[in-house]
Amino acid sequence: MNLISLENICKSYGEKIILNNISLGINEGEKIGVIGINGTGKSTLLKITAGAENYDSGNIITSNNLTVNYLSQNTSFDENATVLEQVFRGDSPVMKVLREYENTLKSLEKNPNDEDRQKKLLVFNC
């Protein structure tokens, strides 16, 4: 099953063409690697694939419910955070909902009779 297809993706910065008619597909179960020397567009391709950067032309087709995230190679981490805490700091919509859910649970631990928080928790469970 095809998870994502990139068709004729083009990207340039001013006069410099970074990606010129790049096409590829990634199927379920496949593992891929992106190899090249510095400045050839590897990070740009990954950012475009994850939707973190715009492209000039082409098409990206994804399967239903596919989520693609991009972890920058220059990400700063909190030295005191666990790996799981670091993951929850992500900005994806799923991570935002998970953080809100966790915060609601913590709030209810402190005040189990808070009816507003109880109602909010019911929304998460629907």
Automatic annotation (TrEMBL):
- InterPro entries named in the record: ABC_transporter-like_ATP-bd, ABCF_ATPase, P-loop_NTPase
Which Pfam family would be a valid example here?
ABC_tran
Q: Name one GO molecular function term.
A: ATP binding
| Domain ABC transporter residue range list | 19-111
Per its UniProt entry, which superkingdom is the organism in? Bacteria
Q: What is this protein called?
A: Transporter
